[in-house]
Amino acid sequence: MHDVSAHAAQHHTPPQGFIRKHVFSLDHKVIGKQYYALALVAVFVGMVLSWIMRLHLGWTNLAIPGLHLLSKTGAPGDLMTPEYYLQLMTMHGTIMVFFVLTTAPFAAFGNFFLPIQVGAEDMPFPRFNMMSFWVTFVAFLVLISSFFVGDGPTLGGWTQYAPLNAVGAVGGPGEGLGVVLWAASIAIFCVGQLLGSLNFITTTLDLRVKGMSLMRLPLTAWAWFITSCMGLTAFAVLMPACILVILDHVAGTSFFVPSNLVINDQLQPHSGGSTLLWQHLFWFFGHPEVYIAIVPGMGIVSHVLITNMRRPLLSHRVMIGCMAAIAILSYMVYGHHMFVSGMNPFSSLAFSFPTLIITIPATIIVLLWIGSLYGSRLRINTASLFALGFISMFVAGGVSGFFLAQPSIDIMLHATYFVVGHFHMVMAVAAIFGIFAATYFWFPKMTGRMMNETLGKVHFWLSFVGTYCIFMPFHYLGIAANVRRYQAFVDEYLQPLIPVHRFITVAAIVTGVAQFIFLYNLIHSRFWGKPAPDNPWEATSLEWSTPTPPPFDNFGGKQPVVYHDPYQYGVQSSTGDYVMQASPEQVATEHEEK
Amino acid sequence: MAKFFAVTIIVIAIASAIPILRHTWPEPPDISVHGHLIDEQMSETMAEAGISFLAAQFILAIFIWKFSNRPKDAKISKFPGGARGLVIAAFLLVGTEVLALGIFGTRAWASVYFTPPSADAMPVQVQAGQFAFYFRYPGPDGKFGPLHASLINESNANFFGLDQTNDQDSKDDIVTAEMAIPVNREIHLLMHAKDVGHSFYVPELRVQQDFVPGLDLSIHFTATKIGRYEIVCTQLCGLGHYNMKAYLSVLSQVDFDDWLKKQAALQ
């Protein structure tokens, strides 16, 4: 199953000079760090936007000091206008989904660790890899630039429903140039992800070292592989959809605008388009995207937990099978976003059942984690705390999926805060907990220094409790029919719910402040942290067989040979209770090795 | 630390369940004929989701409590039944659960979408546009006149684009900014959007349906309680989205007839 000859493909010489080493680097590890840095900038931008939104939702007439500096027209006298709220909301969603949840767990950690975990010196197409990061960076700049041009960013939400996304400036502030920049940014982003996915797939299939059969790949490598397969198909649909939106704006086409629309008493010069077409194209990408965000987290949580439980999962194969099943099913469920969209009501049932069925592999994954905890020797550290927090959060957000998978209940809950609570818990915060677990776990390998555990634990406690305080009440609001995407709650039946919004705002600010502890820990440890040993967690996979931090060619010119399954813990070996994949030592194991 | 974590998980799980059990922020009361089907489905799902949530959090907490920070020589034991047992349990328990939810939930969905409106259902047309709803009643002739997009003009209050000079059927059409309907009478709501996507949501009626520009849709429902309710837009439609609303008055038949007469006089 391995192909040693393919190694010639990814050889490149040690980089020379600052630009080649740190800017336009071909080294997958540097590219991984660049993705991480981009995601870090993006997540803090996205978080500050959410603070501004939450303050406004709690106290609509509150002047937020300094807000006028962001936009004179959007926040005259520091008071936010209704349209500016929607513009910030759109940017929050877009930045978080694309530039954080897709970028960090998949592109950042995947880039750094996938080649090392398969035993390769680099990705097979280093230039594509470098291009994928810089293209993503440009996409981010294009998106951010919409804050500063014309009448600001688009206000149509991260889903950019048609025909609002295609009618042009007449639709409202940001609906002209703002939408074009949004669509351009996402189309460029898709190019980056497609290049990245190609590299990930080829790395996994072609660059495994001797002894590294597919079944010996760690679960993180499997998760990135499955995610890249999803990315290849999902982004390939979103990119043309975005290009069609741009054409509707600049080339006079009408892909998403039907005839006879009247805006501001003006008959629009479009005809023949379909508004539902956009929803189909968007959600055909959008639902797999949810799993693109969360499947790497599943791999990371498994990897981190196994190391800290000192035992493999109850079944490696079942875990892989469930992640793959989720990926395949993800293309059959996207219509559950469209139950009340006007789509044929029979289609709703056709989309509802696969959505309900997808809970089976998701449940098996959770049961495998929890069942594997039984009888383990669980080590509690910041990484394992975040991994366990991920499970708690994934369950909490997952069960609300039972409701939203059913078209009849969706009549009540669609477009309410219930949906917002659901997806924030199950794909956003859970994925971010995965990113944190990965950061605390791999930081020593990535930088050569340990992170501060005390600060890490403070960060965990505030994040864990804070997250529940923010997102659990969203579900209650949704049940009480609190509609989402409102900049103020003027309806009479929503008045009693405003105190809940204020509680959420306070929780969001406290939880957000806690993230600065993480940022401090990250930066401080990077320069002044305790030097890290090569294998601080007594782990088994190949990334721990390399020096810390790994040299440019990962294994110092030697090619590792793999002798063991990825997670040989709970054994008796010369090193302790584990045997590394690259160690030729034979040990007695519970299962026969693959 | 591990034990404290386990307790925290349990406290959070219980605290999360309390507002649901106490109905602290209840769903709006149901005033429709079909709504009880949705509500029953919701309660059943809540029970199953609630039990799954609490059970998973409790077991997670108990295992963290029991199996963390054990001595280095503590024996690693296997979960009884192993992965096979868990997979079978997931298929049997969750599989049956979700299938049952899916199948029973179909009843509620079918009651709204798979049954046509009855022949004597009262037609009302709603036009959605940035950022208001307008309603149209067919008048004594029982017929709606055609819509002409080019005639839509808010400044002269021609919200639907009616040609009341030339179109016979339009002459007696009654256009209002508020929706009124008689209690216990089925309504056939014809939905039209003039500009971008909107939605028609009346939580008490257990009705939510998007407007799709370029596609005329319809829904039907029967209100069972007299009162005044809010119709809100749930599809992001622009800067005034949050303020796009109208009132729905459910009246007795006599009061409704009076109301319609008054509206006709105002045309």
Characterize the structure shown:
The complex is a heterodimer of chains A (594) and B (267). Chain A contains 16 helices and 4 strands. Helices cover 60% and strands 2% of the residues of chain A. Chain A has a domain at 28-254: Cytochrome C Oxidase, Chain A (Up-down Bundle), CATH 1.20.210.10. Chain A is mostly helical. Chain A has a two-stranded antiparallel sheet. A two-stranded antiparallel sheet of chain A has the order 3-4. Chain B has 2 domains: 2-69 and 80-113, no CATH class; 122-266, Immunoglobulin-like, CATH 2.60.40.420. In chain B, helix 1 packs antiparallel against helix 2 (35-67) and helix 2 packs antiparallel against helix 3 (82-113). Chain B is built from 4 helices and 10 strands; from the N terminus they run H-H-H-E-E-E-E-E-E-E-E-E-E-H. Chain B is of the alpha+beta class. In chain B, strand 6 and strand 7 (207-211) form a beta hairpin. In chain B, the strands form 3 sheets. Chain B has a 5-stranded mixed sheet. In chain B, strands 4-10-9 form a 3-stranded mixed sheet. Chains A and B meet through helix 4, strand 1, helix 8, helix 10 and helix 11 of A and helix 1, helix 2, helix 3 and strand 7 of B.
Helix/strand layout:
The complex is a heterodimer of chains A (594) and B (267).
Chain A: H1 17-23, H2 28-58, H3 67-70, H4 82-118, H5 126-145, H6 177-206, H7 219-250, E1 262-263, E2 266-267, H8 275-309, H9 316-329, H10 345-357, H11 359-373, H12 382-404, H13 407-413, H14 417-447, H15 453-479, H16 498-528, E3 568-573, E4 576-579
Antiparallel strand pairs in A: 1-2, 3-4
Helix pairs in contact in A: 2-4, 2-5, 2-16, 4-6, 4-7, 4-8, 4-14, 5-6, 6-7, 7-8, 7-9, 8-11, 8-12, 8-14, 9-11, 11-12, 12-14, 12-15, 14-15, 15-16
Chain B: H1 2-21, H2 35-67, H3 82-113, E1 122-129, E2 132-137, E3 174-176, E4 179-182, E5 186-193, E6 198-202, E7 207-211, E8 217-222, E9 227-232, E10 245-251, H4 253-266
